[in-house]
TrEMBL record:
Keywords annotated in UniProt: Signal
Gene3D superfamilies: Amidase signature (AS) domain (3.90.1300.10)
Entry protein name: Amidase domain-containing protein
Signal sequence, start to end: 1-22
GO MF entries: catalytic activity
Taxonomy, superkingdom: Eukaryota
Domain Amidase per the UniProt entry, residue ranges: 120-366
Organismal lineage: Eukaryota, Sar, Stramenopiles, Ochrophyta, Bacillariophyta
Amino acid sequence: MKIVLAFLVVLAVLPEKKFVETSRRWIQTWQNNKLENGSCTGIPLVNAFEFPDFASLRKKGGFSRSRRMVSKRLANGPVSASSLSDLLFCSIDDDEILSMDAISLSKAIQIERSLSCEQLMKATLDRIDKINPTLNAIILMRDKRILMNEARSCDRVLDEILDSNVSTENVQKQNIGWLYGIPVAIKDVSNAKNLPTTMGGSPLYCKSPENLTLATFSDPYVENMIEDGAIVIGKTNAPEGGLGSNTFNDMWGKTLNPYAFEADQTSISAGGSSGGAAVAIATKMLALADGTDNMGSLRNPAGWNNIYSLRPTAGLVPAAQRKNRSALASILPHPASTPGPMARTPRDCARFLQSLVRDTKKFNAESLWTTQETLPETIRIGWLGDWNGRVPIEDGILST
């Protein structure tokens, strides 16, 4: 991914008067040209880490100092710099950003530096504002200003690491997890600090949307993803008590399946009980989200919304804390219901599960089989039929 470094060079070598004149001219040229295929027409492009004198540029203040300089010098000038990211990063189209899987986002943010956390957060919030009112996948949100400030803080930390001459390949060795700056939302049956837990709008836990109690702690697996750098932005919808192959409740309403609009049948279910998370991922509001699974609550909404998920082995992902009634991960005790990952790609599912677990002795995503590897000669496959008639199955399925 290419970024605009030609104007970073100006910061490093030109006198102040010439810097202001040239920077304004280049930025004006950039603003007057359309962005085509992720490239800024009219401005020289170089690859950030192929530029021969980039190391010396970093020593002089690099990204973080240049951002402060440009912001300070141009904010009140004839060229308005509405976004710091728009100045130093060649703006990728929002849809291009949101179409990336989480691993690609992580690489773009931490290694290529072709995407800022601020850009990603803004694109995410804009997308949610645009389509969530119709789909109702995300029911609770943190304050947008706080979220944008957290994203900018992530950028500053990354800039400081780069300014300290740490190679981009070693960024994650600086206590920076692979999810650093990536937005996630938590299923509304688990606790995330400073967000309410209503258990899918259950009156047993919450009387009304106007009478919400904020959680004072995050459940262990939520803490794990936060420790890996994720920014929790809100809560995703679930059925009451987190029970059901659907996603609707009296308090928050119904989550719609996005594919229903193509078929003009808004009655089509989003699945459940992790339907809010599945719809948010399918419609690019999020790259990742968690869910919980009792008898398909991760798997069936994934299938009904064309994404991926898996139900981890019971006990692999740490259980919810039992500090109070609202801390339960489900009405049924763990491990009958277990948290797990949801994503648009299998590799994201595996990597995200690693974040939820954290303990590489229990699970290591890097050790998983791939389609290129040789499978064992014999594989044991377990399956559940109609459970002695308790679960109705369409004719022909069990006989195939």
